[in-house]
Fold these 2 entries.
Entry 1:
Amino acid sequence: MQEILKNKLSIESSRPGRRGIRFAAADKHAADYLPATLLRKTAPNLPELAEFDTVRHFTKLSQQNYSLDAEFYPLGSCTMKYNPKAYDVLSVLPGFASAHPFAPESAVQGTLELAYNLQELLKKITGLAAFTLQPAAGAHGELTGILTARAYHDANGGQNRTEVIVPDTAHGTNPATANMAGYHVVNIKSAPNGCVDKAALKAALSEKTAVVMLTVPNTVGLFEPDIKEIADMVHAVGALLYMDGANFNALIGLAKPADFGVDIMHLNLHKTFAAPHGGGGPGSGPVGAAKHVAPYLPHPIVSHKDGQYTLVDNRPESHNRMKAFYGNMAVVIRGYCYLRQFDAQTLKTIAENAILNANYVRVCLKGKFNAFFDRTCMHECVLTPPDPHTTGVHTSDIAKRLLDYGFYAPTIYFPLIVPEALMVEPTETENKDMLDAFVSAMEQIYNEIQSEPQTVKDAPHNQPVKRIDEVSAARNPNLRWQ
Ligand SMILES: *Cc1c(COP(=O)(O)O)cnc(C)c1O
């Protein structure tokens, strides 16, 4: 049965002479429109299929894909969760989607009003003084934030500040961003509890420090309990505290970063705020700043005066613009819908459920797949496989075996400070039944590791594609149909 199914899928279905739709007049007309030199002498070598076969082909392909609409997607740090279809419809309303980027402000008042209102809502949930919606991704938000910090220092006698301090639990984009902005990156190791080592931070801080970049929660899914004290240490040397808030669903409604001393931060709308992170975009990484830094955010910013919404370019201290026009509107619209759908109490529940679900998985799997830092985590837990050196079964094998059980693999081998990491982010949207099913699958894999490790090492067994050579697939992609 399995074999027949597999063969059916892999059979090459092109047959000479099979046709989908035939436009009788097409051949005749091509010569009317194109110069002879551009006309093909021979037909292109394309698959030949009936319309019906084509529909079936693409439908089958789509069914081989994992998707959030069909499966659980515990991809840590990428937050694949509630992405309401209704927001998709709203984000392509003609008034938004058909607006020309050069349309005069008077013609796009609705779009500007929505952007302005989202800026205001983001200010409310973070406590910060101003937001720009320009950045097109989280990493782009970081670059925007670090350039904002530089503009601040340049204007405040801090031209000699050349260093950005980044703990080893930061997202990988943090050191990359600081480097790209021209700063010297100073890495500090974490304390044994997975959080910032305050002694190491103190030793690294100096009058050369421009910014300390903290990922909160950090990449091992932990909140920095001493964040306020850390902020005070940073400010004492005249530096700014940058918070990478890409995973804000762990904090939304629970804590405002401005309250614990954050000067600049970015959010990923395409994680927390109802747009998926996977799939290559588009994204949106709004950047917020505290009052003393706000004037240095890039221009334009949407402002509201006398009933009119305008894009304010006249901001003399600002560090120029980061993107053509004003952000990825379709993602901005989804983020706005999200914040309008839920009141403050519900937003708090969202964070609480994200935290509860991650801890539920962590505790259920204790003794089998232990958390690297065995503490209460935030929205994700970072697990490790049982003794991979003795069993010979590694994280990549477990990830492949999960596919056989119908689960998308968690993020693996990240964060780098955790050997053989399995980073599970259930998100607040999954119910207990789904979490229990995932835990059972992990428990069965644990049993297989003990009794039949080869089964796990040879996984996946029931997927259309087995293990691929990921390096060759990336470097020499074979995208031809034949
Ligand atoms: C996803 C993520 C980023 C980067 O966001 P992109 O939109 O992929 O550039 C940065 N920091 C953290 C903590 C993240 O989880």
Entry 2:
Amino acid sequence: MKYVTGARCVKCGKRYDAVPDLTNCECGGILDIEYDYEHIRADVNKDTLRDRKLFSMWRYREFLPVEEDTKEPPLRVGWSPLYDAERLREKLSLKKLYVKDDGVNPTASLKDRASSMAVAKAFEAGQDTIACSSTGNAASSLAGNAAAAGMKTYIFVPERAPKGKVAQLLTFGANVISVQGNYEETFELSKAAIDEYGWYNRNAAINPYLSEGKKTVSLEIMEQLNWSVPDFIAISVGDGCTIAGLWKGLKDLKEAGFIDRLPRLISAQAAGCFPINRAVRENKALAPMEENTIADSIAVGVPRNPDKAMAAIRESDGITVEVTDEEIMAAQKLLGRYAGVFGEPAGVTGTAGLKKLCEEGIIDKNSTVVSVVTGNGLKDVENAIKYAGEPLKCRNDMNELKEEFKKRGII
Ligand SMILES: *Cc1c(COP(=O)(O)O)cnc(C)c1O
Ligand SMILES: [Zn+2]
């Protein structure tokens, strides 16, 4: 790999060669991929990027830890839209608000960025079987990206995973193991099975390449903003790999000379499960928490990547915020009505946190903010319907329709 110099443990600092099937450090710490930024700077700049015709996460190849001859996986992941959300901005009385809709990825969540990377690295490792545990989206995205590449998958999900995600898994032909227990137990079983069978490990908190895939979300945001740095980026946090990846991408751009300052991160968690935010605020080691939230994708009581996530929040002088399920579902409706974006509960938790911080006056009205929607609302329609209200029911009868309109004062 031309631009990668190696991997370093975020706990003890030990260095490793960046082999394709790299996992945790011998001390248990997670590794971080390191780059030669001078070399990146010499080979790619804003102008060369602008001319590229490849509109996917792989347009940032120099920033990604893959061999030169590794094929891009088939599904088109990334280059999701960044909307200038005028009406939502007014609603929150912010100077500027952008919504990055990562729910439009091939399997409908930001996790596709990590799964595309997992498929590329499994290919380099000469493996044709990939496994992971997941609250749902890592699973469905791995299953889809692997199916397109002709790889086999074993997927462990907790029994509470929403039907939409399980439907995706089964449709993509994954071997699905629905674990009777919570996410922690699901993770433990997947780990034991991976050790036993030697599959390629797509658990984001173990495989250091995956947050390198996720970091493409911030590379895109910055290019889409024409390299003008926002004041804040709001995102939801579960395991912590996504916010860690987002931060890594921003730091990479700064190191490579594409931007000259860094935004502050807003780490949004559910009020029913916020171990990372709590540990950051209390400046303590992470302690497990219960998983009480509708936002299943971030219901992670024992985060597997707290070190990188907590460092990202701290280094960025970030803000932590928790939102209740009601606030999450209110944000879902707000995004739908004022931006036309339908996010799943965990997908809109960043926006819910942003709204709360705006209302509390913690975020200056003069700020420019990017809110990342991490997953599509169609993944979990049961909860959406509970909060979105009922349609007007009517027979094929114009008079009845008029009556119903009148009753409701609609027209
Ligand atoms: C996984 C996920 C997150 C959080 O990512 P972590 O790496 O677990 O912090 C947020 N939103 C959605 C929709 C997700 O699937
Ligand atoms: Zn270590």
